[in-house]
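hi!! sorry for the late reply, been swamped w classes. u asked for the two structures so here they r. pasted raw, havent cleaned anything up. first the sequence of the first protein and right below it the tokens
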Amino acid sequence: MRTGRSITKAGASLAVLAVLAVLAATLLTGCRSSDEAAGDDQSPVTLKAVTGTDRYQVTLSPEAVDRIGIKTDTVHAVTARTVGVPKGVKASVPYAAVVYDSDGSTWAYTVVETDSYVRSALEIASIEGDTAYLKAGPAKGTAVVVVGAPELLGAEYEIAGEE
């Protein structure tokens, strides 16, 4: 009778191992996105060198745009009649559009085509509340990213996660 119990225990152990193997395979497959499971290797971010610069055009997949929640505004014209604006100011952007490089340079991501962005230099005269007044930068009316700009900077510099 002991032999019967040993076989039963061995059979039960094999059954448990088989169930664990199937469960592990299912969980690991479940960790992949549906695109990966279907064999789609499209990256959420594509970088293309901008000729004559050290910058890149950052193109996001539509899913990445949705996840980040990209929102834009425009570069606004500033006239000499605008009260409290420093001399030499040509335009303004929402302060949310301003990103800082590791050396302290100021930039904004401009929209170059659907879901594609390029970092553009800003020369800031002053910051007043939610507005950055510019001595130089993108042309008036240019769309700038106001939500998601830090994520674009991280994507351009290929910084993953919380580095």
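now the second protein. again sequence first, tokens right under
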Amino acid sequence: MSTSTASAPVRTLDGVELPAPGVWSIDPSHAEVAFIGRHLKFTKVRGRFTGVEGAVRVGADPADTSLEVTIDMGSVASGHVDRDDHLRSPDFFDVENHPTATFRSTRVEWAGTAGKLHGDLTIKDVSHPVTLDVEYLGYAEDPWGGRRAIFSASATINREDWGLTWNQVLEAGGLLVSKEIRIELEVETTYEG
């Protein structure tokens, strides 16, 4: 394993550029946790949470990397006010009693610029393991001197595992809202050292 690091925010590990070890804080203004479900079995409905904070702690060995994220469930935005209010209600996220959701990693498998991040997703005080497919997209310096690493991640979950069971049966068969939900994360992180 060949390694080169200095005080630079990136390093070359086995011929691949990766973020340097240290804390990379999620930039809330450049972070999105999105979800995609199906309505009436066919139509994709997209939404996102704009209140996202946390940090990636990159290990000297990429397998020692960890992630912790907190999501403000009240920040849900799907482009439709009535739907957003319904998502905040006790039928779904019950934001009044459960204002945040969290993801905490437990293990990482890493190869090159991609990996699998295993962790616990907690929604409404219910935790279940989730595996995110993660990709390191690269490093950039912003115009104000910020040093940024950009990551993308995704997973598919069954929302009912977290007690998000509200639905309606359609006359023609099937359900109004899909049980299967795709989660997509796009985050810029800033190097704290």
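hope this helps!! also noticed smth abt the second:
The CA atoms of residues 33 and 185 lie 5 Å apart.
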